[in-house]
Structure formats: structure tokens, C-alpha cells
Specification:
Structural class: alpha/beta
Number of helices: 6
Strand content: 15-25%
Low-confidence stretches: none
Radius of gyration: 17 Å
Number of strands: 15
Helix content: 10-25%
Mean pLDDT: 97
Order of helices and strands: EHEEEHEEEHEEEHEHEEHEE
Strand order of the largest sheet: 2-1-15
Largest sheet: 3 strands, mixed
Length: 271
């Protein structure tokens, strides 16, 4: 298996907190250790650097505790960047901050016509875009994604509110293989996944419940939550090298490694 060098965007959780609840993971009455969240995030960032990836950072904005989840900041493919429109008003101000970063970085910009929460719900798998809907990203946004990026879009209907973004229920391992939790999808979407990825890795509910599928793969190395031990074992059997990281503090807001990581695809050669 060949690893592909990646350019990634991250946001330090300087202002991380759980001040509101917009998904089932969030409990504003529970304790949050912001310093621990930063240390865990720094470990994730260093893991990417150790693997030879490039990590860029966007400056965190006070009052936006979920800005650490950079995957929701946009979708970037072939040098084009689609900005986002969040469902929840608590996150709305993240959208212009990320849009400004993409524009300054020289990406060709597109603005969303509908609710679209970026790479949290839009995953490039080979020559298809898998696009989640059901809780956050509007189904109507999928047509615009296809027009902007020129990839066939496959709608994935999510049915379990714990797995509210596609990247909490499915991870792309390489251009031909994914891992996913079947129970997180509608029957029709499960049938599509079986047809598209007959050799997919199926995760257990136990691993999904620690956000084990919120993982980042470069085609050889898979960075995933350390607590997802069964999934890691299945991936190693398939020949992937797994690297477990502890993001338990950020999980209190419903985030894992992939949530913290946005892939910046410059052009067709860097798919």
C-alpha cells in the first residue's frame, strides 16, 4: 500500500468548550479540560507531521469553540473550495473565517446555496463524492457539489443522530476501500455501499461509539481514536498501519481525528 502525502488544514482548540448542545455527544453541564484538549490536538498534529504530511493552521476565533473541527470548514478538491453554511447558529460565524482563509490561500471559491457542512458530510472516494444528509447537510446541496467539482455524487442517508455527519459513520481508506457502520445508514444507502464497496471494512457499534470511524487515512496509515481497538485490528489484517490517538476531550463535543482535519486537494494529481 502506498501512502499519499497530504496537505491538511487544522485549527488549534484555543477556545474549546462545550457551551451548548447541537449533537447527542455534547453536555454543557459536564466538565471540560481545555488544556487537555489542546495537548491531545497537538499530538494529532505531530502525528501528521511525523507521517510526512503538511499541516497548515487557521487562526482560532474567540467565541467559536467548535472551530477546532476544521473538516466542517469547507470542501476542497482539485484546487476548488466550497464554503459552508452551518445548520446551527452557534457555528455560523465559523463559515466566513474559513472562507477568508481559503480565499487568501488562492483557492477558486464557491459559496453554498444550501446548508452544507463541508468535509464532515462530503468525502471523496475514488471517482465519487459520498455526500451525507439526514441531520446536517441538506440533500439539495448535493446537486451543487456535483456541478462545482464534477464528480458523481452519491447520496448517503444517515439515520442515527449520534452519527450526525458522514465522517462519523464512514472513513475512506483509499480510492477503492472504505470502512463504515452499516446501522448508521438507511437501508437504501446500505445497499449502495455494498454495491460500491463490496470489500468494505464493517465497524462494530462499540468502535463507532468512540468515533472510531472518524479517522484519517493516507492510503497506508490510518490515524484513528486509540479506543477503537477492534476496528484497528481489522484494518491491520487488511494491511493498513494504524496509529491510535486519544482525542477523548474533543469527543465531548462529538469530534475525532477527521473532524479536526480538512484535506486540501490542490489538483487532480493529488487526489
Amino acid at each position: 500500500m502506498d501512502a499519499t502525502s497530504q496537505r491538511l488544514l487544522m485549527c488549534r482548540p484555543t477556545y474549546f468548550a462545550v457551551d451548548y448542545a447541537i449533537n447527542p455527544w455534547m453536555d454543557p453541564s459536564g466538565p471540560v479540560d481545555a488544556a487537555l484538549a489542546v495537548r491531545q490536538w497537538e499530538k494529532l498534529r505531530q502525528t501528521y507531521l511525523d507521517l510526512g504530511h503538511t499541516v497548515e493552521e487557521i487562526t482560532p476565533v474567540p467565541g467559536l469553540p467548535d472551530m477546532v473541527f476544521a473538516a466542517n470548514g469547507g470542501t476542497v478538491i482539485d484546487g476548488k473550495a466550497m464554503a459552508v453554511q452551518f445548520r446551527d447558529p452557534q457555528r455560523a460565524d465559523e463559515a466566513p473565517a474559513y472562507r477568508a482563509w481559503f480565499e487568501d490561500a488562492g483557492f477558486e471559491m464557491y459559496d453554498p446555496k444550501h446548508v452544507n457542512e463541508g468535509e464532515g458530510d462530503v468525502l471523496l472516494a475514488g471517482d465519487h463524492l459520498l455526500a451525507g444528509t439526514g441531520f446536517r447537510t441538506a440533500h439539495a446541496s448535493h446537486a451543487q457539489l456535483q456541478e462545482v467539482f464534477g464528480y458523481p455524487v452519491i447520496t448517503m442517508e444517515l439515520v442515527d443522530p449520534r452519527f450526525y455527519h458522514l465522517d462519523t459513520a464512514l472513513t475512506v481508506l483509499d480510492e477503492r476501500t472504505v470502512a463504515y457502520l452499516p446501522e448508521a445508514f438507511s437501508p437504501g444507502s446500505q445497499a449502495v455501499l455494498r454495491r460500491l464497496f463490496p470489500d468494505a471494512v464493517h465497524a462494530t457499534m462499540a468502535d463507532a461509539e468512540v468515533l472510531g470511524l472518524n479517522a484519517v487515512s493516507d492510503g497506508r496509515h490510518v490515524v484513528l481514536p486509540a479506543q477503537a481497538t477492534d476496528l484497528a485490528a481489522k484494518l491491520r489484517v487488511r494491511g493498513y498501519e494504524t496509529i491510535g490517538v486519544d482525542l477523548s476531550e474533543l469527543r465531548k463535543a462529538g469530534g475525532g481525528p477527521k473532524c479536526c482535519t480538512l484535506r486540501l486537494r490542490q489538483g487532480k494529481a493529488s487526489k
